[in-house]
Fold each of these.
Amino acid sequence: MEPITIPCALIGLGHVGRSFLRILETKAPVLAARYGLVFLPILVADSSGVALRPQGFEPGTLRAHKEAGGRVADLAEYLPNASVAELLESSGCRLLLDASPVNLETGEPGLPLARRALSLGIPCVLANKAPLVLAFQELEQLAQEHAAGLAFSATVCGALPVINIGQRDLIGGEIALFQGILNSTTNFILTEMTLGRSYAEALAEAQRRGIAEADPTLDVEGWDAANKLVIVANAVLGYPARLEEVSVEGITGLTPEHLDLLSGEGKVIKLLASAQRREDGSYRLQVAPTELPLFSFLGGCAGWEMGVEFHSDLYGRMYHKIWERDPLPTAAAMLRDAVNLWRG
Ligand SMILES: NC(=O)c1ccc[n+]([C@@H]2O[C@H](COP(=O)([O-])OP(=O)(O)OC[C@H]3O[C@@H](n4cnc5c(N)ncnc54)[C@H](OP(=O)(O)O)[C@@H]3O)[C@@H](O)[C@H]2O)c1
């Protein structure tokens, strides 16, 4: 059977966007043979603007252009006075992939683009958390009204399928407690600090590997984990949480001396995100450095690992973890979402 070609818009050509292009480069035959799908980036954008190539950009060439320091504005197909929002419909785009930075103030560029795409019936795959944190209910409603898929498994713990498991595999369960280490930059920093490395050195390594947020204060001050907790609450716990209700404390106040002291007692400090169910069905949401026994599931998640626990009435206690130290698995989660949207 001839594979179906899906013209896509790819917003953001940074660590995740370029990793997504690398997957298209290397996995095109697999995607065509196994799933009958060809994802063709026709509309691409970075901070310099947008370019349109109706016959599709060659993923390897585009990735190499960006890796060499090139901008979208340098491409022959650059459209100086155009915007992605305007071009979404006229270009024939059938999928929006958002790998642009988190902006919790305005939601730009991701939120208006997701709104526009869903209103046009164009499915969206998001790695960017901001649109969901700012407008989860609205986007879900738009997706339903316009029968457009909305998938975001890449937004929580990279490629660990927290959202998928929560939505698909806990049917009928009541989750009394969800908790996890949702941010690998801080987990890596804390582990390295216990091994004697400085906070600054460890953060620099996370940035070099493309794991840290573009604005790393989101990681170290706990907001990235809080964003993920809000998404889990809305998408999995059925609780319409807002970021303002999460109690948030980051890791910037922790000292190596403090970490040393605890390790002598068989404990570790982790930046723990938790959602604890209250009697009335709402959840108490918190992100805070928390002492855990070293030999507990989350206490044992070290370095580049992230992990989550679901405690529920029907499914016992579920424990899941992942090790990832570059953005490729997150890009792969976008791919899995895109394929699943089409299969669905
Ligand atoms: N890195 C990870 O491991 C990871 C894991 C899970 C989720 N995420 C999420 O994935 C998203 C991308 O992360 P990243 O690490 O790839 O970030 P990044 O390396 O900073 O890349 C961001 C990309 O977005 C572009 N951009 C900035 N403003 C834009 C605008 N107004 N319109 C269009 N594009 C714009 C940037 O353009 P320039 O190239 O011109 O700077 C860059 O190409 C973020 O929302 C992040 O939270 C990342």
Note: The first helix runs from residue 15 to 35.
Amino acid sequence: MKASAPEVAMLRAVADGLGQLGGAVLVLDAGLRVVLATPQAETLLGFRVATGELAVRVLCGGAVKRPIAEALAAGSAVTASIPHPGSSEPGRRISVRSLPLPDRAWLLLLDDASDVDENGPILFHGMWTQDTRMKQVFRVMERVAADDMTVLIRGETGSGKELVAHAIHQLSQRKSGPFRAINCAALPSNLLESELFGHVRGAFTGAVRDVQGHVQLANKGTLFLDEVAELPLELQAKLLRVIETRTVIPVGGRDPIPVDVRVISATHRALRQEVEAGRFRADLMYRLRVIPIFLPPLRERPGDIRLLAEKLVSEMNGKSRRTVQQIAPSAIELMERYAFLGNVRELRNVISYAFAIGDGPILLPSDLPPELLENGAGLEDEEAGVTKHNPPRVAALELSPEAARIKRALDRAAGNRERAAKILGFSRITLWRRMRELGIEP
Ligand SMILES: Nc1ncnc2c1ncn2[C@@H]1O[C@H](COP(=O)(O)OP(=O)(O)OP(=O)(O)O)[C@@H](O)[C@H]1O
Ligand SMILES: [Mg+2]
């Protein structure tokens, strides 16, 4: 049942009017197909809505329960809250209210019904956070992704620079194009040059054919220059040329080849200081940091250590012989006191270590790598320091991981069981029981 031309014209007028009032509206014909979507509706949904598309397909995708579809088909008005069809973020929802129009046409009023807690955790393109500065970063990413603006990401190692670069690519119109990442610190200058810009046959010994570099391979996509501050000065000049002329000349070549790339770069250094020290070209810096994005280190993101530790635990539960149901509060405390110079990557390693070393459903302080324990047990260490020369009697190799851990704690505590229990996160009774079960002599 298709709407007639005058009817469509009338529906358009209605939707236009509502759109001008700022409404996110879909107009459906009697066949429940979209006649019109206001720009606000498309903004809310986050994708383009084709006219003629079935409304349920637009809103519900493959969902099994379709209260909206059923109500509309039955000709009754409906108000429902459904998962946001354009987002996999938990908590993102939209509300749909249907208003009947003459001739079995419908008006669907959409609204944001997300119960996303501003202070709660969110997942954004593989990145978990509950930190306000990180959320601000995500907002900037969303805003700059669509335009081809050049982004410079600064952050410590392991803080998520590559994830951010990749997310910007995914959020951009270039997402179906290539994403090419190259680490400028990983190669000597001459290799880096030909990796980046390519070379022609005969350019140097061993150059038996023309080879495209990353700049060309990223054509119609995104070029990610990791550790860009390490780019040697002569290559900086060449990169600047590429950005300014939008062409590339391969090593040994003559003719500039047009390229269409968006450049995202990353560094753990302050580029300005590199410029002042004469190691980085100021003109290139200004080209690269049109949009600077700063990723705060993990230790400065309150709540993120606990959040990420929990997410990593549930991720590893599926892949490991051990299942951890809970992280002991004392273990969280030790992690939160630790500097994590390697940021999220180091936290991931810490959790992997705990899965390998410990057992049982509770992740205990004694499952953590020694550097975290030393951090927390600093005071006890000072007290026990004098007896540290007292080596363990039993070869560590013969012990089960738990027995070895208990032995280590006893050694550190100079045999003081109360202190050893504290290091392990056990009660004194549990320590005594486990020692007896494992045959560990006091
Ligand atoms: N917010 C986050 N949520 C979940 N995982 C994260 C988050 N941030 C980083 N990671 C993970 O941490 C690891 C390091 O991230 P990534 O490689 O993006 O960091 P980087 O800043 O590029 O590090 P490097 O400077 O060493 O290249 C990856 O395994 C990544 O998936
Ligand atoms: Mg990286």
Note: Residues 100 and 106 are 5 Å apart (CA to CA).
